[in-house]
C-alpha cells in the first residue's frame, strides 16, 4: 500500500480541516511524517519550542513538572489533536512538557518555517491562531480540572 504524502496526512487532520488546498500545500512543505515510540519525550517544559505535532494515531501525555511530585499529566492528546502551541508566541519556549504515552504517528511541523509562512500570509496567521487558541483553551481547562482533582483528593496520583 503506498504511503500518504504530508499533504494527504494534513488534509485528513482536524487541525487543518477546511483550510484551502493551497495553504495546506504550503504547510505540507514544513512537515514530515514521524513515528515516536512509547516513552519518548517530545519536549521538556521551558525548552526551546521549534516544532509541533499533528497527531495521526497514538497518545501523547501533556504534562508539567512539579518539584517533589514529578511530571503531572494535564491531558492526554490523541488522534486529531495538535501537540505544542508555545512555538507560536515569543519567547518560543514550551509551557508544558509532553511524552508519548502510546506509540504515535504524527506530522512533525517545523515551527520556524510555519512562523515565516504566517508572517507572509496574514489570513493563514489568523486562521492558525484561532485554531491554536482553541487548543490552548482546551489545555488550560484540562489543567484546571486536573488541579481541582489533585487538591480535592490529596491522595490522587499524578
UniProtKB/TrEMBL annotation:
Domain Cyclic nucleotide-binding: 15-135
Any Pfam family hit: cNMP_binding
Bilayer-spanning residue ranges: none
InterPro entries according to UniProt: cNMP-bd_dom, cNMP-bd_dom_sf, RmlC-like_jellyroll
Leader sequence segment: none
Protein name listed in UniProt: CRP-like cAMP-binding protein
Organism, as annotated: Actinoplanes digitatis
